[in-house]
Design brief:
The chain is an alpha/beta fold. The chain is globular, with a radius of gyration of 24 Å. The mean pLDDT is about 90. Bound molecules: cytidine-5'-monophosphate (C5P).
Length: about 400
């Protein structure tokens, strides 16, 4: 095999390729060929259904490896257990990821070798969904997609176009070269390669006493998605996160904190950074916390909570005397006059861009999966249509890449 296409990102990398049972499996031989051209090795694992669309022999010939198909193949279990199989790769790629396979991944099923490997792996997982447009748009699939992303799975595609079933719309598996490009970005060859991004996410908890605290409704979904999107464009990412129920984004350095003061200190320690994106909902005030649990006592005065103002982390980074990141981005959660208030906030906090969003209860932004934002920069405000928080994150990361690609203007 010629080495003129060897890619720095993929050379020597081992891809465990889980092949699902859909017609898009016919693109898998080409995917294997292109990965191998770039110096990666590919170990195919087929679901039972996949073998209906492409033969194990074809994948074995192209990968020059044994193709794994069944969980209870005793010879294979003796030679290589499924745990070992799942661990010896640098990444697990699921292509095509059918609606059924995505649902099984979400439920944690281990009903055959392919799903067992996906459960047992400790490596990043990337899926390339492929299915009929109705199946893709079905709320169950969209729920499963959101859950997989929340679990740290990265997604490439699907594309829009005409489908094998004769319908038109989103659901076509990403082309082999698009999957290759996503893998190259994953392995650090994206446009943000060499840059360090600092992201804050989630709420802060401000203790009142050892058992109580003041908090807010931030889920951290938007900030975590931004960290993942910057990472997938090749940045080194430090995510400073308040308490959330979210999994750590794959490949991101996560610093977990509770209070605003801890978040400020963690951000300071993470400098220098080229990019800072403050998506955390930092509490404005902290309480002069009691050392002991406050007691409710009949007839006694109510406890007097003394508040102190928390440092503004965003303003601190924007005005940093020695180590101001080249691009500082804040969020403005408003319930009215969004653009006007956000524009004033950009000036007040001396940040470069503000991502403004309407968090009035009717929008369901807080805790929800979707967001409608307006980007406020030195140029005209730019309103983006409502979209998934993951898409807001990807679009913002693309804008950041564009900014650095144009000399930071
Ligand atoms: O002032 P306000 O809280 O509306 O500003 C929101 C923006 O400022 C967000 O980007 C948030 O992460 C950041 N912020 C901060 N530290 C604070 C308060 C807000 O970084 N103490």
């Amino acid at each position: 095999m010629g080495d003129e296409t060897v890619s720095a990102a993929l050379a020597g990398k081992r891809v465990l390729l889980v092949v699902g049972g859909g017609i898009a499996a016919v693109k898998v031989p080409d995917l294997i060929r292109r990965l191998r051209e770039r110096g990666a090795s590919v170990c195919p694992v087929m679901t039972r259904a996949a073998a209906e669309f492409v033969t194990p022999l074809a994948l074995s010939a192209l990968s020059e490896e044994k193709v794994f198909t069944e969980l209870f193949d005793l010879t294979d279990e003796a030679e290589m257990g499924h745990i070992q199989l799942s661990r010896q790769a640098d990444i697990v790629v699921v292509a095509p990821a059918t609606a059924n396979l995505m649902a099984r991944m979400v439920s944690g099923m281990a009903d055959e070798l392919a799903t067992t490997v996906l459960m047992a792996t400790d490596k990043p997982v990337m899926i390339a969904p492929a299915m009929n447009v109705r199946m893709w748009l079905h709320p169950a699939t969209q729920r499963n997609l959101a859950q997989l992303q929340a679990d740290g799975v990265s997604v490439v595609g699907p594309n829009e176009g005409s489908m094998a079933c004769g319908e038109f719309g989103p659901g076509r598996m990403a082309e082999p070269m698009e999957i290759v490009a996503a893998l190259e970005r994953h392995f650090g060859q994206g446009p943000l390669k060499g840059l360090h991004a600092l992201v804050t996410s989630g709420p802060t908890h401000e203790p009142i006493d050892p058992v109580r605290y003041i908090a807010n409704r931030s889920s951290g979904k938007q900030g975590h998605a931004i960290a993942a999107a910057l990472r997938s464009l090749g940045a080194r990412v430090t995510l400073v996160s308040g308490p959330t129920a979210l999994a750590d984004p794959v490949g991101v350095d996560v610093v977990r904190v509770e209070t605003a003061l801890q978040m400020r200190d963690a951000c300071e320690s993470a400098l220098p950074a080229d990019i800072a994106i403050c998506a955390a909902a930092v509490a404005d005030w902290r309480v002069d916390a009691a050392g002991q649990k406050l007691k409710k006592q009949a007839g006694q005065a109510l406890p007097d909570l003394k508040l102190a103002e928390n440092p503004d982390i965003l303003a601190g980074l924007s005005g940093h005397a020695q180590q101001r990141p080249r691009l500082v981005i804040g969020f403005a959660a408003e319930t009215q006059n969004v653009v006007e208030y956000a524009t004033a906030k950009r000036a007040k906090k001396s940040c470069d861009w503000i991502v403004a969003n309407d968090v009035s209860p009717a929008t369901g932004t807080f805790g929800g999966d979707r967001n409608a934002v307006t980007l406020i920069s030195a140029a005209e405000p730019e309103s983006w249509p409502p979209m998934a928080k993951t898409e807001v994150a990807e679009r913002l990361a693309e804008r950041v890449a564009w900014y650095f690609g144009h000399g930071g203007e």
